[in-house]
C-alpha cells in the first residue's frame, strides 16, 4: 500500500467529523490552489470573489461544521 492510498484510507475511516478533505500540496505550496481544492470539496463557488473574499467565505464554511483536512505531499 502506498502513502497516498494510506492517507486516503485514513480520511475515509476518521470519525467525529462531518467531512474529510484531502488536498495534495506538492513540493511548492500554492495557497490559491489549496483554497480552490478545499472549496471544491465543500462545493463553494468562488466566482467573482476577491482573495480576501475567498478566504472569508472558506473560513465561514469551515467553522460551521467539523472538517478533517489532510494536506498530503507537504514538503515544508
From TrEMBL:
Occurrences of domain NB-ARC (ranges): 1-76
InterPro entries attached to this UniProt entry: NB-ARC (IPR002182), P-loop_NTPase (IPR027417)
Gene3D superfamilies: P-loop containing nucleotide triphosphate hydrolases
Gene Ontology molecular function, alphabetical: ADP binding
Cross-referenced Pfam families: NB-ARC
Name the record gives this protein: NB-ARC domain-containing protein
Source species: Gossypium aridum
